[in-house]
């Protein structure tokens, strides 16, 4: 594989590249339940793409193969006390202009509202600014996912766009929310928080 493997640690959690041994665990967390609770908050207006264990394994291997040599892995597991609870990702909205977006999924609801999402994205965004020549990191969510918007705010992200009533879920309209942080804002935020190293 051409992917550069990653391991990022804090006192609270570990982010690391996905191994073949992780695939069954991730598959069960993501696809092992009909109508999983996490999907009600993670872009529920898009249907969950069905996968068998083997098609999911192929999908993950293909994702790694698409990365260019030296690029950081684009998806890491979030691990707490040796247990996988979710993933962080990045994707290119428009690679020629280095427009990058991040995402997070915490599939185990026991770990919601415990600071794990904020800490995972803190580590992830910091790593992306260190390893890629990007000027900005973006995050897209929707107006019902207030927890995700609070995470963005805690990490110094600014509301950059609100597309009103463009998402429909369970018969109701919601806004699409775009947040982002510039490299200089991130460095200032880290310095203010005392995590500048």
From TrEMBL:
<keyword id="KW-0808">Transferase</keyword>
<feature type="domain" description="N-acetyltransferase">
    <location>
        <begin position="13"/>
        <end position="184"/>
    </location>
</feature>
<protein>
    <submittedName>
        <fullName>GNAT family N-acetyltransferase</fullName>
        <ecNumber>2.3.-.-</ecNumber>
    </submittedName>
</protein>
<dbReference type="Pfam" id="PF13302">
    <property type="entry name" value="Acetyltransf_3"/>
</dbReference>
<dbReference type="InterPro" id="IPR000182">
    <property type="entry name" value="GNAT_dom"/>
</dbReference>
<dbReference type="GO" id="GO:0016746">
    <property type="term" value="F:acyltransferase activity"/>
</dbReference>
<keyword id="KW-0012">Acyltransferase</keyword>
<dbReference type="InterPro" id="IPR016181">
    <property type="entry name" value="Acyl_CoA_acyltransferase"/>
</dbReference>
């Amino acid at each position: 594989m051409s992917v550069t493997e990653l391991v990022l640690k804090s006192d609270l959690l570990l982010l690391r590249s996905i191994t073949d041994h992780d695939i069954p665990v991730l598959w069960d967390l993501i696809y092992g339940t009909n109508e999983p609770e996490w999907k009600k908050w993670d872009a529920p207006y898009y249907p969950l793409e069905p996968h068998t264990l083997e098609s999911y394994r192929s999908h993950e291997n293909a994702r790694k193969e698409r990365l260019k040599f030296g690029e950081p892995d684009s998806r890491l597991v979030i691990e707490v006390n040796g247990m996988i609870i979710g993933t962080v990702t990045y994707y290119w909205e428009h690679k020629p202009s280095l427009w990058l977006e991040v995402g997070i999924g915490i599939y185990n609801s026991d770990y919601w509202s415990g600071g794990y999402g904020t800490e995972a994205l803190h580590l992830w965004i910091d790593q992306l600014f260190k390893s890629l020549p990007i000027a900005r990191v973006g995050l897209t969510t929707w107006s019902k996912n207030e927890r995700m918007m609070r995470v963005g705010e805690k990490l110094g992200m600014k509301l950059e766009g609100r597309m009103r009533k463009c998402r429909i879920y369970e018969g109701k309209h919601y806004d699409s929310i775009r947040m982002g942080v510039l490299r200089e804002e991130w460095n200032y935020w880290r310095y203010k928080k005392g995590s500048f190293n």
